[in-house]
Each structure stands twice: as C-alpha cells, then as structure tokens.
Amino acid sequence: MKIGIIGVGNIGSIFASRLLGELRDLDKLYLLDRNQERLSNYSSEDDRVEIASSPDEVLSNCTHVIIAVKPQDCLELFSEIINGKNACPIIISTITGIEINLISEKTGLKRIARIMPNVPSAIGRGVTGFVCSSSLTGRDKRDVERILLTMGEIVEVREKDLAAVTALSGSGPAFVFVIVESLIDVGLKMGLSYDVARELILGTLGGSVELLKVKGNHPGEFRHLVTSPGGTTIEGIYSLEREGLRGTIMKALFDTYLRAKEINSELEVTNDRTSR
After folding, report:
1. Residue 265 pLDDT level (bands cut at 50, 70, 90)
2. In CA terms, which of 23, 88, 244, 269 is 20 to 30 Å from 150?
3. pTM of the model
4. Which domain holds residue 67?
C-alpha cells in the first residue's frame, strides 16, 4: 500500500505513527502539511516516508489518501485536488461534518470513506466510526478497514449518524478527561495526594468499563449492585440527580451533535457565495 496523509496535525500524526508501526504492507507514506515543523520528525525517521510538496503529488502516488484538515480549510484543498491530474486513490476523510456527496462534487473523486476516529487511537485503543461510498468495492472496503484497524476498534455506521459518532466518541474523550480531572480534584480536596487519587480514579474507571464490556449488562444494573439503602452511594447519587448531572452531560453531547450537523451547512453556504 502507498498511503498519503494531507494534514499532519493531531489526528494526522496519530495515523502516521500507527500506520508506520502497525501496517505490515505499507510501502510508502506520503505526508503533506503547510507547517513544515510538523514534518521534521518524519523526514529521516523511516525510509518509507516521503515528504510531499503538493496535493497532486500525494494523489498521483498513493492508493489511499487520508484527508485530515480542518473543515474551514477543506474547500481550498478540494480546489487544488480537482485542478490537479485527478488521479483516483481512495479518499479517507476525517473532516467533521463534510458529507461524501460534497467531497465528491468538489474533488471529482468517487471512492470515498468518511471516518471519525478519536484520541485513544494514539495507543491503538481508539474507536473509529466509518461509512463508505457505494463506489467502493468489497476489496476497497476491506483495505479501508485494515487501515482503520491500526487505530483500534471500528464501527460501520450510516452517514447520517456520523454527527452522533462525532459527539459520542470523537469529542467524547474530551468530556471524559474533564470528568476524570474533576474526580481527581475532589480526591485532593478530601486529602489524598494527586498520585493516589489519579491511580484510584483511573483504576476504577478502567475496571468499570471492562466489567460492562465483559458482562454486557445495562449500566443501571451494576449501579444498583453498589447502592445500599441509606448508604453512602445513594447519598452521592441523590446529589448527582438533584444537581442535574445526567441532564448536563446529555445536553453537552447533544449540543456537540448539533454543531457537527451545522458545519456541513455552513460550508455549503460559504461555497455558494464563493462560486457566484
């Protein structure tokens, strides 16, 4: 495989590291980014890495191209692609909110997969939601899946559900980190050292998640197992419900979902204005 990555920021750099370390049949990895400092660590690190100078160079040499740029930068990139030689690799887009039809319209390319990875992919423990265009053959799809599996688990979804995937798993780690931080902080308030509080919280979260995965029970069933009448746990749960924690979390995720849906509409409006 010859794979290109356009945009070597947070997610692009994770892809680069995972592909170089995990994809056995990777022949070449072409990297392109406006910020040359991001590429400096790759130029002499591995003889499979090629630093590209243009999108056309990436598309002309690769079987698969991962586009990992910000939504506000994608129209300019798409115009460069459609004005190039129009080689026909499989496009794997991480761009939030930008639908397959719009990518195809603006690039002239047909074989497209949209994905939503997340930050735990950096250690191969991520989960990536993905959808493929109807132009991809069965073999094409399997190749895309092999690329994505270097990042962790994969879940195929409908394109209309990618905004929900963005909220739950794409943005989700940020919310988890905020919750973990608050749990550690309250440990400090109760007199524990940072190291002890951190170890307790991470072990508790990790074990609880693993229990849910192994047993398959609804979370509420396990919550009731540790909630005794008149005990400490029910007092804490009562406080959480009284303060509206459940509703706050749901609202935060739903707001994230709505924002993901808005981005494609905003880009279409911008495109309509610039094409007049």
Report:
1. confident
2. 88
3. 0.88
4. 2-157
* CB-based burial, 198-234: b 16+ in 10 Å, e otherwise: beebeeeeeeeeeeeeeeeeeeeeeeeeeeeeeeeee
Supply the CATH number for residue 241's domain.
1.10.3730.10
Domain co-membership, 103 together with 79: yes
| Span 30-39, pLDDT tens digits | 999 988 888 8
Question: Do 147 and 81 sit in the same domain of this protein?
Answer: yes
Strand partners, 112: 91
Same domain as 110, residue 25: yes
CA angle 3, 92, 129 (to 5 degrees): 125
Q: φ, ψ for residue 13 (rounded to 5)?
A: -70, -35
Determine the longest span between alpha carbons in the chain, in angstroms.
71
The domain total for the chain is: 2
State the Cα–Cα distance between residues 69 and 107, nearest whole angstrom.
15
